[in-house]
Design goal:
Blueprint (H helix, E strand, L loop, with lengths): L4 E7 L6 H8 L4 E6 L6 H7 L3 E4 L5 H11 L6 E6 L2 E2 L2 H12 L5 E12 L2 E2 L10 E6 L3 E6 L2 E7 L2 E11 L6 H21 L4 H4 L4 H12 L5 H12 L6 H34 L4
Helix pairs in contact: 5-9, 8-9
Length: about 280
């Protein structure tokens, strides 16, 4: 009998993280790794683990997930997406199994949430747990759109449920320098997205937190002093100060990230202004 679940792991140079991720989903379903030209041994790790491996150039998270859904010859109705720096706990696995086994026909997928881990500390307050992303889809019933550096739900044929048991996210597993370099890149993608996207009022009042978050970003980015306010909100109002130096480091870094986004939005406006002033031919 085919297993009821496919797990798709997106990778690029994840040799340090991939073994832990694959171990956490061993025996949980059909495992597929979609790699984007890694040169650090990631593909060899996937092959040695006996999982199916595909290679596809990475353009954006939403596009990569959609490509995987359409091209990986999946045999299962349900698909769970994980990144290589994420870990499925036994409790998360049980919650997923229960959710898909009891899902009504109208359910097209499930939002999932994560525990942001810094070393062994869960940054529950600093990362405003829970945050929700569409990570489980019924094949043919939902897909993704790109949103800044990440992705959001796109077409959804049916209803979306929630799995409240979190998986683990080791976003800082490669160290702060790698995290800063990655978020320097992400800030440019976020700036371009926020600058051109107007606020969707239906999304702003949606019952789904994921849709509300997407709608809020263009508004918040335009508030004077928003990077500092983001830090104060996370560190003071949400209680990040209770999570020690790890909480301070994470909250301060997210404030810095918002500052980069604002700075790059200003640069994009300057670049576009001369073109907008040119007379139409």
């Amino acid at each position: 009998m085919p297993e009821p679940l496919a797990i798709i792991v997106l990778t690029h140079n994840e040799a340090d993280n991939l073994p832990r991720c694959l171990e956490s989903v061993a025996g949980f379903g059909e495992i597929v790794v979609v790699d984007s030209a890694s040169d650090d041994g990631t593909q060899e790790i996937a092959r040695s683990a006996g999982v199916r491996l595909y290679e596809h150039p990475f353009q954006a998270f939403g596009q990569q997930r959609n490509w995987a859904l359409e091209n990986c010859d999946l045999k299962n109705e349900w698909v769970l997406f994980l990144d290589a720096d994420e870990v499925a706990t036994p409790e998360f696995r049980r919650a997923v199994t229960d959710a898909i086994q009891n899902a009504a026909d109208v359910v097209a997928g499930f939002y999932c949430c994560w525990k942001m881990m810094l070393d062994r500390r869960w940054l529950r307050r600093s990362d405003s747990f829970p945050k929700w992303q569409l990570r489980i889809v019924r094949r043919g019933r939902a897909d993704f759109i790109d949103s800044g550096h990440g992705q959001k739900e796109g077409r959804v044929d049916g209803e979306l449920g929630y799995i409240r048991e979190p998986y683990l996210h080791y976003a800082l597993s490669k160290g702060w320098e790698a995290w800063w370099a990655k978020h320097n890149q992400y800030s440019g993608e976020e700036a371009a997205d926020r600058l051109v996207r107007s606020t969707s009022w239906p999304e702003l009042f949606s019952k789904d937190p994921s849709r509300r978050s997407r709608a809020l970003k263009p508004l918040l980015s335009r508030i004077p002093g928003w990077p500092l306010l983001r830090f104060l909100h996370m560190y003071i109002l949400k209680g990040g100060f209770l999570e020690g130096r790890e909480g301070f480091a994470y909250c301060a870094s997210m404030g810095w990230y918002e500052y980069l986004i604002r700075a790059k939005m200003r640069e994009l406006r300057k670049q576009r202004a001369p073109r907008e002033l040119q007379p139409h031919q």
